[in-house]
Amino acid sequence: MYLTPQHILLAGATGLTGEHLLDRLLNEPTVTRVLAPSRRPLSEHPRLQNPVGDPAALLPQLSGRVDLAFCCLGTTLKKAGSEQAFRAVDLDLVVAFGKRAREMGARHLVVISALGADAKSSIFYNRVKGEMEQALKAQDWPQLTICRPSLLLGERIEPRLAEQLAGPLSKLIPGKYHGIEACHLARAMWRLALEEQDGVRIVESDELRKLGK
């Protein structure tokens, strides 16, 4: 069964995947409103509401009905500057966003996690992503879709050296480890959002690539 959400809450609209997803949402005739809080202003659109400021401070101020929520939040350890700062974004802020989306009436959350997410992992990045997934599951969403992409490919405003070096190689790796274009991930997230399936669904990168093509 497919749904037609009209009021959407989006976090991370200025990021690589979030930009593609926002563009898709604003071009969908069934979407009435996109509420997208962000640190820097987005291009104006008649169906876009864009509160600007610190995301954590903006969350309690958000208002209005929400049918569906997308979370594309994420940073890097280098950009964050410390493990604590990284956790504040990729764990704490994501979980706070999920909580606020539920309070606003959203019944389905589609969130970007990462390939290898595991709360028991010895790798810090994977462990934080796993903890984030566990915390969102504990919010008891009617429908929770967790996307686990491999290396994201695409042109960022602020290029990441590691991704630039690993990108070409990731295209040669088969299966779920193959790199995925951010535009394909955004398209897959929208398709997944339209499907009604109770409970938690985890979608690995190879399936995301198929859905996004």
From TrEMBL:
Keywords: Oxidoreductase. GO terms for molecular function: oxidoreductase activity. Its EC number is 1.2.1.-. InterPro entries: NAD(P)-bd_dom, NAD(P)-bd_dom_sf. Gene3D superfamilies: NAD(P)-binding Rossmann-like Domain. SUPFAM superfamilies: NAD(P)-binding Rossmann-fold domains (SSF51735). Residues 12-152 form the NAD(P)-binding domain. It holds the Pfam family NAD_binding_10. This is Nucleoside-diphosphate-sugar epimerase. It comes from Pseudomonas chlororaphis.
